[in-house]
């Protein structure tokens, strides 16, 4: 499909199972842009399916922080701000909050803060944050409390970004070499 006029689809989404499959080019481009969803998938301790070569290369990329850069501040904050705006509108118009989304918003801000401070991405929720996140998910915090927490975390994120240990840019050249090698290997495999 990749070499046909149609080309491979950039992504396939199965809403029923909440699964998303990316073509490797799109996945790598999103990772280089520090897309929070893609980075969290990459850094997840749970990998369900990966070829040995792909798994090894992705582990190498994770170990060496190939995708991690100061771009993460912009993308993580951008996603959090967008979600917060949607939640605020829903609350103001209908008095409703999707508490699971509020929980993920707070979790994402904390992940981003740790990332820009330490240069390491961990999607595992620290034990000391778990109960608070679950309380938000259960709706045990009111909107004003969640909104105030979000504001405080956004300010922490801004301050942390000013002193970030992350490099300005990801290692795009290394990722490009990997993609070219992967494409060439696919052509060779197709010929045999």
Summed up:
This protein has 192 residues and is mainly alpha-helical. It has helices at residues 24-32, 36-43, 52-63, 71-94, 99-118, 127-137, 143-162, 172-191, and strands spanning 11-14, 19-22.
Could you explain the architecture of this structure?
It contains eight helices and two strands. It is mostly helical and 192 residues long. The protein has two domains: 11-67 and 170-191, no CATH class; 95-162. Strand 1 and strand 2 form a beta hairpin.
Any key phrases for this structure?
two-stranded antiparallel ribbon; 192 residues; 2 strands; 8 helices; mainly alpha
Secondary-structure content class: mainly alpha
**What would the average pLDDT be, to the nearest integer?**
90
Distance between the termini: 17 Å
Query: Residue ranges: pLDDT <50 for 5 or more in a row?
Result: none
Major beta sheet summary: 2 strands, antiparallel
Helix proportion of residues, in percent?
55-70%
